[in-house]
Design brief:
2 domains, Immunoglobulin-like, 35 strands, 4-stranded antiparallel β-sheet, Neuraminidase
Length: 372
């Protein structure tokens, strides 16, 4: 039988998070349906999930959603749909069902929350704007180019990559594209354009990653990805959290748990749970699995163990940190994240000793993936 005392005495040592692990600081999609994690330093590639084919683009919008396209139907009569990718699992969902949005070859999210795309039509490619609530597609205008395969929205506006013309600039209002470097057209065949949000360095590539000089329009080879996958869209990952399951009742309501601050390696990560009894003792459970613990599949019901009501252990209890709720029933426990934990996924949950059935409450779990 699992007992709280079995894991409550262990504290999270900083050394465990300094282990050498692949950074996997990018996520990409292939037209064959794969969602992959990419290491921009070593070129390592790991398959995260395999879904519908037709993934020709990838964009991260300001609400932290990853958008792509998928295809259904026959080769002679294809239908194209918008999809959202779960950044933790790679699983895709179709928020607008099988609405046909046309052959979108590139996507980019603006810093003001808009989603733009390049649609392949007869003649000049179209710049389109996509309503993220309804899926409606509005044509901004023709670009004047017919080989645009990648978009990137940065502080410099909308940049694009044409298969032969290379780097382009696009007017977001009219759709018209201009070539600021008409004498520079290579490398040919590039399918994605991505900018690291921390360094503001841009890259272009396909099975490789070329450092892009946006001032001169030139490129330099940086990394060749393992197996030279035909990447159609790439985004740098951001710090993310995601809820696992539901909390059970604390003394004053659901024991909701979430991250308070920026999720970044090399910084203090503050995890908060609420609605507790004032000045109650609790623990922060930190684990490296959400599927199994002590040979048992997760989640594990705590009701037979403690006599609680609807409480579950949702993450593996590999390490714990002690905490105390304040006079308002809020418990905040910090974790010092060393740089080596960047882009590594781990899991957190709170448990607090208080006046509830069984004498202990359990929060929801959290998936956490920090970036540098």
């Amino acid at each position: 039988m699992l007992q709280l005392s079995r894991f409550a005495h262990r504290l999270l040592p900083a050394a465990i998070l300094t282990m050498s692990l692949a950074t996997q600081d990018m996520i990409g999609v292939l037209s064959t349906g794969e969602v992959v994690r990419l290491d921009s330093v070593t070129g390592a590639v790991t398959t995260l999930a395999i879904g519908l084919p037709g993934k020709n683009a990838l964009a991260c919008t300001s609400d932290n959603r990853l958008w792509t396209t998928v295809r259904s139907g026959s080769i002679l009569n294809p239908q194209f749909h918008l999809a959202v990718i779960d950044p933790f699992t790679g699983a895709e969902s179709l928020p607008f069902g099988t609405t046909n949005v046309g052959d979108i070859r590139a996507l980019a999210g603006s810093r003001t929350g808009q989603l733009f795309g390049i649609r392949d039509v007869a003649g000049s490619d179209e710049l389109v704007r996509i309503d993220q609530t309804t899926g409606a597609v509005t044509v901004q205008g023709p670009t004047g180019f017919s080989g645009i395969q990648a978009l990137d929205f940065t502080g410099g506006g909308i940049r694009a990559w044409d298969l032969t013309a290379g780097l382009l600039l696009i007017n977001s209002s009219t759709g018209l594209a201009t070539d600021p470097f008409p004498s520079i057209g290579g490398p040919a065949g590039m399918q994605y354009l991505a900018t690291d949000p921390v360094t503001e360095q841009s890259y272009v590539g396909r099975g490789t990653m070329h450092r892009l000089n946006t001032i001169a329009g030139t490129t330099g080879t940086s990394v060749t990805f393992a197996g030279s996958p035909e990447l159609r869209g790439v985004e740098f990952t951001t710090g993310r959290q995601q809820i696992i399951g539901q909390p059970c009742a604390a003394a004053n309501g659901p024991a909701n748990c979430g991250v308070q601050n920026t999720i970044a390696a090399g910084q203090l990560l503050n995890v908060q749970s609420i609605n507790h009894q004032a000045t109650a003792i609790g623990i922060q459970i930190v684990g490296f699995s959400e599927t199994a613990y002590a040979g048992l599949p997760l989640p594990i019901s705590m009701d037979p163990v403690f006599g609680t009501s609807g409480c579950f252990l949702r993450v593996s209890a590999d390490f714990t940190l002690l905490g105390l709720s304040d006079i308002n029933g809020v418990m905040v426990i910090g974790i010092n994240l060393p740089p080596a934990v960047a882009f590594q996924q781990f899991y957190v949950q709170h448990a607090v000793l208080e006046a509830v059935p069984g004498g202990i409450s359990f929060s929801n779990g959290l998936r956490i993936r920090p970036r540098l």
